[in-house]
Amino acid sequence: MKELSLNILDIVQNSISAQATLVKILLAETEDTLRITIEDDGKGMTPEFLATVMDPFSTTRKTRKVGMGIPLFKLAAEQTGGELTLSSKTREMSPEDHGTVISAFFHKDHMDFTPLGDVVSTLVSLIQGCPDVDILFEHSLPGGDLVHLDTREMREALGDEIPLNSFEVLEWARESLNEQYGF
Amino acid sequence: MKSLEELAAIRNKMKDKVALREKEGDIRIVVGMATCGIAAGARPVLNAFVEEVSKQHADNATVTQTGCIGMCRLEPIVEVFEGGKERVTYVKVKPAMVPRIVKEHILGGRPITEYTIGAAE
Q1: Which residues of A touch B51 (CB under 8 A)?
Q2: B43: nearest CA partner in chain A
Q3: What is the pLDDT of residues B86-120, one digit of tens each?
Q4: ipTM confidence score
Q5: Could you tell me if B29 and B49 are in contact, meaning their C-beta atoms sit under 8 angstroms apart?
Q6: How far apart are CA A150 and CA A155, in angstroms?
Q7: Does A6 contact B13 at a Cβ distance shorter than 8 Å?
C-alpha cells in the first residue's frame, strides 16, 4: 500500500465484515512516532484463528484463498522497526466485551516509513460504504491538537431520515476534517 | 470550524429529497473495495463516483462498495447493475474515466465498451 491510510481502510473492512456496530480509529502521533489503533465490537476471532491471521494464506473470504490485509499492515509497521499487535475476544469468550483490537506502531524517522496519506478520504469512504456502522476517529497531532469525528454525534444531529452516506453529509465530514487538519 | 448545527440544516433541506431518491434509484454502481482493489487505487475511484453522481444529478444511481470480485489483476473494478439489463463490468478504472461513465452510461444509457472487461481480455 502506498499510504497507511489505505491500510486503515482495508483493516476496517474486516471490522465491518465481523458485524461491528462501532469502530474506533485512534491515531497517536509524536514528532517521530505514530501509533494506529483500530478497535471494534465485532464478533471477534477465536484463539486458533488469531494464531493464523498474520499468515497471508489465512482468510475468511471465499473467492480467493489469500488474505493480505493484516500481513501488509504488519509489514508496514515492522519495516520501520515498529510492531503490530492483535487481540480479540469472541462473543462466546466474552459476551459483554467482544471484538478485535489491532495496534500498529511506526518509527516515522525510518526511511521505510510509509506516509499516512489521505486519511480524510479513507474516513469518507468508510462512512459512504457503511452508513449504519458508527465510527469514532481521533488523531492526536504532534503539537497536541486533536482531530475528531464521531458519527454518533452526526447521527444525532441528522435524525433518522437522512442517511450518513448522503452526498451533502459526506461533504460536511470531509470539510470538517480538512478544517481541523488546517488544509 | 464546521458545526453539528450545519448538519441539522442539511437535515431540514434534504428531508423531501431523500424520499424521492429512494424511489428512483434503480442503477447500482458497485466498487470493489477489498485489499486488492484498495491497493490498485479503488479509493479515489469510489470518491469520484460519489462526487460525479451528485454533480451530474444522476439521481437514478446509488454507489455502493463490495469485497473482492475475484479478478484482482484487473482492479480497480466497477460493476454497474441495472434492472432488466446485463451487468457491465469496468476494469482498471481511473478517476479520470468516471465523469464519462456517469455521463454516457449512467445518464445516457450507453456503456463505454472500451473500458469494459471485454475490451481488456
Answers
A1: 167
A2: A125
A3: 999 999 999 999 999 999 999 999 999 999 998 87
A4: 0.90
A5: yes
A6: 9
A7: no
